[in-house]
Amino acid sequence: MNAPAAPAAPVLETEEHQALRAAVAALGKRFGRDYMTRVTAAEGHPEELWAEAAKLGYLGVNLPEEYGGGGGGIAELSIVLEELGAAGSPLLMMVVSPAICGTVISRFGTEEQKRAWLPGLADGGRTMAFGITEPDAGSNSHRITTTARKDDDGSWVLNGRKVFVSGVDIADATLIVGRTSDARTGKLKPCLFIVPRDAPGFERRRIDMELQAPEKQFELTLDDVRLPADALVGDEDAGLLQLFAGLNPERVMTAAFAIGMGRYALRRAVEYAKERTVWQAPIGSHQAVAHPLAQIHIELELARLMMQKAARLYDAGDDMGAGEAANMAKYAAAEACVRAVDQAVHTLGGNGLTREFGLASLITGSRVARIAPVSREMILNYVSHQSLGLPKSY
């Protein structure tokens, strides 16, 4: 009697996911690294790519269908960003506008907020920025000093400062993390507010960055910014639950950003190593060149697996499980990306520092994934005390 056939190995991505990858890769190829380099040099924004991605339904693939989105999740959105990055033309605002802000509003916003914002976020007609980091608090939500006070008429008054906020110059509004007073405990609790770009008292100052990217960084000042009662997103008492509903997708999308960048760098290095001949054979035939590139390929693939796990846990509603996996994915992807860019530059030698190959600018860019939205050290802190049960050091 024949033994029963072994079950088929589980497919890591559905046919729909594979088709989405192929379609987005084709879009990315049409624009590529040269397009992003020209936009950056001209101090512009990748409006053409953003519009085309929106037209094809990629920007809002994670948003509910009833509000113009694709009805998918962070798993699908991360595929879009990864493939655009692998083509050399990542859209950083995807991390912020549809992933963080779109997710928070779709999960916790009122019906009016959903109808006002989600269709525009899905079709690219509107964008949102996200402000959490502060000069003295970093991303420590327990030390945020931006406060929101409720007036007798129900309106809110916000005061505080934010730093390293991406894309405020092109955003229609910024989702601001503030803190309100809890009447029961007397403590401050985090809450989220939609602040229109033209709100009186809401000022921005561009930060002079060495990093060259289309998405500019800003410092924000909120000086008695008065907002209507419906500017509050979700429940005033939900606290960290709503905040982490945005931060977990942010980490997954940062991993996608890093993996895409790493794949781009690795592809350029492999292409060069196949063609460059110095001692009668392509340099890629030498193990000193080939093995580091092979290691990077392995590390990028492993990081992608963790990213996929984090996305699936989040899309399934497991916020706690997604928190651990998202932090691990962001850490693994950032480390693999930095190694990929460094090794690609070394593989090309002097050519790795020329504009022609588009790698030199990534030396700085790849470090962003290590630093933002949370540092590698804070992720190690998280894993050590949340996953391993070790005592806190802070």
Shape: globular
- Work out the helix count: 10
Structural class: alpha+beta
Overall pLDDT level: 92
- Major sheet characteristics: 4 strands, mixed
Explain the overall architecture:
This protein is α+β, with helices and mostly antiparallel strands. Helices cover 50% and strands 14% of the residues. It has helices at residues 15-41, 47-55, 74-86, 93-108, 111-123, 240-275, 287-315, 319-348, 360-371, 376-387; strands at 128-131, 147-150, 156-166, 173-181, 188-196, 202-206, 217-227, 232-233. The protein has a 4-stranded mixed beta sheet with strand order 1-4-5-8, with helices on one face. Helix 4 runs antiparallel to helix 6 (240-275) and helix 6 packs parallel to helix 8. It is globular and about 80 Å long.
How does the SSE layout of this entry go?
Blueprint: H1 15-41, H2 47-55, H3 74-86, H4 93-108, H5 111-123, E1 128-131, E2 147-150, E3 156-166, E4 173-181, E5 188-196, E6 202-206, E7 217-227, E8 232-233, H6 240-275, H7 287-315, H8 319-348, H9 360-371, H10 376-387
Parallel strand pairs: 1-4
Antiparallel strand pairs: 2-3, 3-7, 4-5, 5-8, 6-7
Helix pairs in contact: 1-3, 3-6, 4-5, 4-6, 6-7, 6-8, 7-8, 8-9, 8-10
